[in-house]
Design brief:
The structure is a homodimer of 391-residue chains.
Chain A: E1 8-11, H1 14-21, E2 30-34, E3 42-46, H2 51-54, E4 63-67, H3 83-98, H4 103-113, E5 120-123, H5 133-140, E6 145-148, H6 150-158, H7 162-184, H8 192-205, E7 221-223, E8 245-250, E9 253-254, E10 257-258, E11 261-267, H9 272-291, H10 298-312, E12 323-327, E13 330-335, E14 349-353, E15 356-358, E16 362-364, E17 367-371, E18 378-379, E19 388-390
Parallel strand pairs in A: 1-5, 3-4, 5-6, 11-19
Antiparallel strand pairs in A: 1-2, 2-3, 7-8, 8-11, 9-10, 12-13, 12-14, 14-17, 15-16, 17-18
Helix pairs in contact in A: 7-8, 9-10
Chain lengths: 391, 391
């Protein structure tokens, strides 16, 4: 923040709100974070989703202002209240004083009260999670200089905290358990849907949440030649045949964080082409894991890894990246691709992968989740990385 | 579209893309829909998520243009290809001709080819699902008049198709099965988490997807006084006691559509206050169901329903709405609230509800999903609407 000359940051994208407050927002929410530690931070969030409901841990920010409209009766309790209930009463009481409909009015008010209306405010008006905060705040408070500081949030988030590593590690553990349990259930004639059911059910059993996209049944599972369809294919009634590949990519959610890993198996024995090609992507990923150290440059790792896969057995191998940062919201910088010159740092969390997709043949993948450390990668993934032959 | 004078619509919000193309978008996607039926529609979507992977039904739009970067080998197949595989090959081949990175370049190109660059184009630059399409497209093609037409999409979507009613109906069926199965598993000492597990597992068993928000374990379940926390509370280790309420609100996903219904139960017998208050909200909801007919005005229904709850037993009842439209993306217009003068139409899908929340006491709710019809509401919900006493 000092480097960028901002006096305060305002988080408003769901990921940045969750990251800075551990608050899971259901409507437009702002988290104000002043540079000066003597100035109190603040949250603006809808009264329909008050703090005791939507935080995973006790809120560290005391000044919470509510907007919108939602009625909870607070005057009739006959017994002493629990702490969460008292927080809810406070929320209702403070909201009733203003019944303000517009969160921007509350944010502007706080900035005035904090003496921040002549300063420079960084907002996360990002392309991926767009909002019109820069425009809207600029119009409301002409004396404030509002700048887009999405890169600054990403910079803060690029090295993971131990809590983040723990949550992603747990998502990985649950995902590996689901893959293992699903593989044990494999039988000829099983459909992709059957397999996805075992996968998702195991995730629930272990305390995770299955991942879906727009409410689709989205376990990232494909059999046979269908494994050439990328990792977003919905599971179908396709039945597993002897000689078919089984591929999964992705994973479950755990406390807001997801896993992103991949493994490939086959029902029966691999033929010569499959063995050769899997070995090639495996060797490529091995090199990526070896190179993932502080001081290495993303684009250089990319070039060497693609070269390794080509030499090791897939002469026509083409790829746009061989890994990416990972965290809240999914993909995080850096991208281990040809145009990203990020120098790796201790504590970055990376998913490394060398996928190969061929129509009429299938998709091969091994993807691991690691933390970059001086002494070599700290693996969050533990499941056997080889091509598994099921009988 | 004729009324609004637009020559074409461009859908870009995930809901509008899914609605107009049955395509489940994973990256920025545009669906161009010309007013003139002789002009061909088109889709612009990432090559990383090509059409055969991300549609639930065979695509009705033939002209699909891909941007981004993603490699799938297409030259090595030894056996005849399936239809999906051929579509994938075509996608890769057409993408390789341009390898365009920017979807806006492709959209502008299509508008030029279709002779639409001097027309008026409506985009869904909505507040709920914001994008900068209006600005971006306006800058790129100064001769086009780009207007925000989110309301037009909503107007098109406000009366549901039979396919939408079928999907929401199935989400409701699965949700009711989950609620029923969970109630059968109830025992004293059971935690909210245990109950939520049975609820979510039954949803998977029945072919639906549990709902989560930002990857949290979000089954909408609360026990006892915790039921006063609104329907977004995460399930906890709170243990069910005799005399506790059990409340759920929401439901599962099915093929992109969700359920939104609520029921309340109690372990044991209700006391006088609970009986009186539940009867009051029940009578209010009954009146809402009775009034939900073509020609009725949303704000008038709201006023009469709130009045009914007050008369029927909760003199201090306050509420900001007693129902809402429902469809893709969740809440749809109209809102059955004090400031919405929408006249109800045949085929609208509504969730009607009269929730009551009181700190130190609990939350009471009955919410039903219906289609507005001349002869009275067509119920998608079928589960017993009374306050259920469990022994």
């Amino acid at each position: 923040m000092v480097e960028n000359g901002v006096d305060a940051l305002v988080a408003s994208s769901p990921s940045n709100v969750l990251y800075t407050s551990d608050l899971c927002p259901y409507g437009r929410t702002f988290v104000l974070l002043p540079l000066d530690r003597d100035i109190e931070p603040a949250v603006v969030t809808p009264i329909s989703c008050p703090i005791p409901v939507t935080t995973m841990s006790p809120p560290w920010i005391g000044d919470v202002r509510y907007y919108g409209e939602f009625y909870t009766e607070t005057d009739w309790a006959e017994e002493p209240l629990e702490e969460d209930e008292r927080t809810l009463v406070q929320a209702q009481e403070s909201w009733r004083e203003t019944k303000e409909a517009d969160p921007l009015v509350l944010l502007a008010e706080i900035l005035e009260q904090r003496g921040l209306i002549k300063g420079k405010i960084g907002v996360d008006d990002a392309l991926n999670e767009p909002n019109q905060l820069q425009d809207q705040l600029g119009k409301r408070l002409p004396s404030v200089e509002v700048v887009v500081a999405s890169h600054l949030f990403m910079k803060i988030r690029i090295v993971k905290t131990e809590e983040e590593i723990t949550r992603i590690g747990e998502a990985v553990r649950i995902t590996e358990k689901a893959w293992g349990t699903s593989l044990e259930s494999v039988r000829k004639g099983m459909t992709e849907r059957d397999f996805a059911y075992v996968f998702n059910k195991t995730i629930l059993d272990e305390g995770g949440m299955p991942v879906s996209h727009m409410g689709m049944y989205g376990a990232p599972i494909a059999f046979g030649r269908r494994s050439a369809f990328v990792d977003l294919a919905l599971p179908t009634d396709y039945r597993l045949k002897r000689g078919d590949l089984l591929r999964f990519d992705g994973g479950c959610s755990y406390k807001g964080y997801k896993a992103d890993m991949a493994r490939t198996a086959i029902l029966g024995e691999p033929n010569e082409k499959l063995t050769k090609f899997y070995d090639a992507i495996f060797e490529g990923e091995e090199l990526a894991l070896e190179l993932a150290k502080p001081g290495e440059v993303a684009s250089e790792i990319f070039a060497r890894v693609v070269e390794r896969v080509i030499e090791a057995g897939i002469p026509h191998y083409k790829r746009h990246h061989v890994g990416h940062g990972w965290g809240l919201g999914g993909y995080n910088p850096p991208l281990i691709g040809p145009r990203d010159d990020t120098v790796l740092e201790e504590g970055m969390l990376l998913c490394l992968e060398t996928p190969y997709y061929e129509v009429g043949f299938g998709g091969l993948m091994v993807e691991d989740v690691i933390v970059v450390e001086e002494k070599g990668p700290r693996f969050l993934t533990r499941f056997n990385r080889k091509l598994l032959s099921l009988s």
